[in-house]
């Protein structure tokens, strides 16, 4: 073998040398790892530098990747060949083979190289996720790689993994400047409608940081309604009424509170109070006055019935509404 190797090299008979190396590699399959690496490295160099066959040069070294037998020299050679071919995924595969079995600070340089390749080649999906997990394993408390991981999960529409990672990021550092993470998690839980209780807890947690957050309050009102937690619905409505809302929104909420109090909670006095507040905002509404008159009669509150009846008379109401006229007349 040595004599033929020297002859073929001297004659620059690269084709014959290629066949010689191929045969010798086959003979050394059961030999030492070091001998295999050295021979495959030489053969790969011949294929790429003399025969200009990048694909074949790569194929000679890939068995070392599969067997996790790459040393530094063969890894760098394979990295260069993949770069020449423009194969970023191949480069990532080589670098991953160089990582320690468990997270090791000595892997930092290798992981940084993988991150650079992923960013330069704009790699997304499973490979980018895998690289980020390597990075996170080095420092589980780092938020920046987790933000990038969230971006990948958003693109993949994997709601379950996105929810899990949003929760992990928030629990890692539950502070005000991370509320966007908690908000996104809360909204996803609301949209999924699979676990109303968890969605409620998530929005309530957000309110601990921003008590006037209108999005959270609206979401909670809807979720509490779905869960038939009527007293909580009422509490949220009353909390929303404390905010600086426009007239139409306040009237809508007061109507909702009045109907809820009367029909779901059985609190006629509370319903009456809500309609009275609505009347203060919209004194010309005949519909609101009629509700107040009806509830005054149910509460046997003749004084209020007469009071609101007199106001009702001043409106351009239908003279054919004999039932309302009779109610007011009797009360008077």
What labels describe this entry?
332 residues, mainly alpha, 19 helices, rod-shaped
How many β strands by DSSP?
0
Number of helices: 19
Query: Would you tell me the structural class of the helices and strands?
Result: mainly alpha
User: Kindly state the mean pLDDT as a whole number?
Assistant: 90
CA-based gyration radius: 38 Å
Beta-strand proportion: under 5%
Question: What is the CA–CA distance across the termini?
Answer: 123 Å
Overall geometric form = rod-shaped
* Main sheet properties: none
Short description:
The mean pLDDT is 90.
Task: Explain what you see.
By secondary structure, the protein is mainly α. The chain contains 19 helices and no strands. The model has no long low-confidence stretch (mean pLDDT 90).
